[in-house]
Q: What sequence folds into this?
């Protein structure tokens, strides 16, 4: 088995899936004690991107109800440009499931595009009383 096959990298696509929804710079304040970017920060950026995409699709307020199939493929480093791509994969009565991928590139040269994280986030459209409301057709 090749090194790539052993670490699963051969299964990672080289093209982002979905629309680029947000791009941010990973800052020193976002690191874990080992110096890499904290996984919780990456999750937070993905949730922000998914919330934007869900609110657009639902034409209003949405909340996150679940996160699944999260995978951290590669570390993120200080100074990386982190872009979150969103793709609505299903819409229920009030829920919207969104595949979210986080990709990094070098801050200065915008080279070395790499998928670092992906997951499926589910949002629920809510009304002014915080109750689920139907997603518009
Ligand atoms: C979102 C919330 C209003 C839903 O209320 P609820 O009474 O549980 O609503 P329902 O049981 O009718 O479920 C609503 C939808 O979510 C779906 N759902 C419920 N639990 C789910 C889960 N764990 N994963 C994915 N979808 C889920 C249901 O299938 C339903 O989808 P549908 O309407 O498309 O068929 C409520 O759970 C809530 O306020 N949660 C807290 C949200 C929050 O604070 N998020 C963090 C900050 S954004």
A:
């Amino acid at each position: 088995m090749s090194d790539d096959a052993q670490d699963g990298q051969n299964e990672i696509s080289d093209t982002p899936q979905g629309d680029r929804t947000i791009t941010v710079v990973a800052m020193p304040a976002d690191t874990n004690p080992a110096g890499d970017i904290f996984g919780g920060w990456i999750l937070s950026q993905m949730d922000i991107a998914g919330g934007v995409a869900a609110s657009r699709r639902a034409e209003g307020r949405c909340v996150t109800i679940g996160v699944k199939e999260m995978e951290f493929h590669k570390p993120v480093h200080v100074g990386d440009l982190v872009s979150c791509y969103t793709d609505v994969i299903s819409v229920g009565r009030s829920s919207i499931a969104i595949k979210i991928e986080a990709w990094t590139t070098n801050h200065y040269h915008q080279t070395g595009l790499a998928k670092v994280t992906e997951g499926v986030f589910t949002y629920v459209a809510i009304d002014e009383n915080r109750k689920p409301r139907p997603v518009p057709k």
In short: The first helix runs from residue 3 to 7. The helical segments are 3-7, 39-58.
